[in-house]
Amino acid sequence: MRTSEKPTGRVPVNAERPGPASTLSGPASRKLPVSPRERKPALAALALLLILGGALTTTLLVLRSGDRVSAIQIVRQVGSGQKVPPEAVREVQIADTGIDYVPFSQHRSLTDKDNDHYAMVTLLPGTLLIEGMIVSSDRMNSGKAQVGLSLKPGQTPGTLEVGDRVQVIHVPGRSAGDQGRVLAENAQVDRVGGGGRTGSSGQVTVLVDSSIAPTVAAYASNGEIALTELPGAR
Questions:
Q1: Where does the chain cross the membrane (predicted)?
Q2: Distance in angstroms between the alpha carbons of the first and the last residue of the chain
């Protein structure tokens, strides 16, 4: 008599068991969405342009630094309205930056004693000369008038030189009882004649505004003009 074998309920060793992936279904088995990375092409392009611009500027500066021009440097102070003497200039080599420097090749015509060019402003040592600092006598004396003064001792300093800056003062006579007043705050000494016997008087020509020149001349004819020097205003 045969007995039938009943299944024991055991799972065979080699039987495949369902894995975790096979047991998950639905939303849980899907990956979470990832937002795409934001890109800003305009900012990237701007950054690239700035980098290229900086590199180009640096390159140009390096290249231009090798370009040199010969210029005039002032080594001795020259007062406003004075001519530039030869000993007041020297040659220097500077980078060509496009500024309108006076080339050293013109220094002979500039410093020649017979030229009619004058310093427009006071030129200090170390100054690099540019075109606007030098003017012709016509432009320098525009609106000015020369007034000759015959001064007595006590009416002028004994150390006046051409180019000095002075105050022109009206000094009334004792009988008038008036106080002196300044006629010209900053006049320029144009010429200095020979001194008198005392060494402190003589002929002095000053440049003043043409509007007050008649007044200065009238007081000068009466001996009522005095000059005071303005040190440091050359």
A1: 42-63
A2: 147
Compute the distance between CA of residue 184 and CA of residue 39 in angstroms, rounded to an integer. 73
Backbone angles phi, psi at 136, to 5 degrees: -80, 165
CA distances from 69 to 64, 109, 144, 165, 186 (A): 11, 19, 37, 35, 37
Taking only the tens place, the pLDDT of each residue in 141-172 is 667 788 888 888 888 887 888 888 889 999 88
Residues 6+ apart with CB under 8 A from 169: 180, 181, 182, 183, 225, 226, 227, 228
What mean pLDDT comes out for the span 195-203?
52
Burial bucket for residue 214 (CB in 10 Å: 0-12, 13-18, 19+): exposed
CATH class of 68-137: alpha beta
- Residues contacting residue 142 through CB under 8 Å, at least 6 positions apart: none
- For residue 204, pLDDT beyond 80: yes
Please tell me the distance from the alpha carbon of residue 232 to that of residue 130, in angstroms, as a whole number: 23
Strand partners for 145: 208
Q: What is the pTM of this model?
A: 0.46
pLDDT at 45: 74
**Best-predicted range by mean pLDDT (61-70, 131-140, 149-158):** 149-158
- Phi and psi at residue 72, in whole multiples of 5°? -105, 125
Q: Strands, E, within the chain: which ranges?
A: 68-74, 89-95, 117-119, 134-136, 144-151, 165-170, 181-195, 202-209, 225-229
